[in-house]
């Protein structure tokens, strides 16, 4: 068949075939590249979904842990209120039996906490979290925490420490649940860091 074709025609046919093959190769390469890109996009979307799911799972775990801790503190509040309260009343620092005269000697702090005091409370309470989690009666632990604070210049009794911590955790819980913004809880970053550091 090809014996009737001239050399020029054969070259033209060869060029045409090579051009067709080259175009076909380019087509298949672009097709494969498109498939690979789609697979990459699918993989990225899958990883993003998994990361979002893991983040939601961590948030749910944190919320559950905080809710359980908050509930436990409320249920055990009666156990921790008597002893620290009594300690705060029965330790006068002077000999007078008169209540008015006794107050200046005890130098009881007001209910308002300074920021430096709250930061110390968060730090120490975070360090003692494991002991609080394992303890049923926490009055002694709150007393111990108050002693540590006292050694650092913060004069608060166990009851004050417990009440302040419960208030902080209540605000923190509202932020986690979305009831409040982070700005509504001035100590949210410190609480988050203290709790996350211990895997809570």
Automatic annotation (TrEMBL):
<dbReference type="GO" id="GO:0010468">
    <property type="term" value="P:regulation of gene expression"/>
</dbReference>
<keyword id="KW-0539">Nucleus</keyword>
<keyword id="KW-0804">Transcription</keyword>
<feature type="domain" description="Myb-like">
    <location>
        <begin position="112"/>
        <end position="169"/>
    </location>
</feature>
<dbReference type="GO" id="GO:0003677">
    <property type="term" value="F:DNA binding"/>
</dbReference>
<dbReference type="Pfam" id="PF13837">
    <property type="entry name" value="Myb_DNA-bind_4"/>
</dbReference>
<keyword id="KW-0805">Transcription regulation</keyword>
<dbReference type="GO" id="GO:0005634">
    <property type="term" value="C:nucleus"/>
</dbReference>
<dbReference type="InterPro" id="IPR044822">
    <property type="entry name" value="Myb_DNA-bind_4"/>
</dbReference>
<protein>
    <recommendedName>
        <fullName>Myb-like domain-containing protein</fullName>
    </recommendedName>
</protein>
<keyword id="KW-0238">DNA-binding</keyword>
<dbReference type="InterPro" id="IPR001005">
    <property type="entry name" value="SANT/Myb"/>
</dbReference>
